[in-house]
Input
Amino acid sequence: MRVGAASRKKLPLAFHEHKYEAMVEDFDAQIKAVCEFCGIEQNDAMHDFAKNAAKRDITSISAPQVRRGLYSEGVGQWRRYAKQMQPVMPVLEPWVKAFQYPKD
Output
């Protein structure tokens, strides 16, 4: 995270922050913003990404999640592991704040 933050400050690169929670909440607005950032046209196939992924031989570890599509149950799942995460929370705290995530 520190390397990414330092890169944003020092390198002449364009960045677009994107949160899963925002995509779940308003897919159309978020995909429009992503397409505008990338300089590509939005199309209807983007809405069917899960169905399209199911037709392809995707072998990444996240393939089952992609095939499932967007789902709100994924939002905040970290809370299930809050107890186990306590030792690293001081390290994560600046990033929780920077990305404006709730603490609990």
Remarks:
- The chain is about 50% helix and 0% strand.
- The longest helix spans residues 27-38.
- The helical segments are 2-10, 20-25, 27-38, 49-54, 63-68, 82-85, 89-98.
- The mean pLDDT is 89.
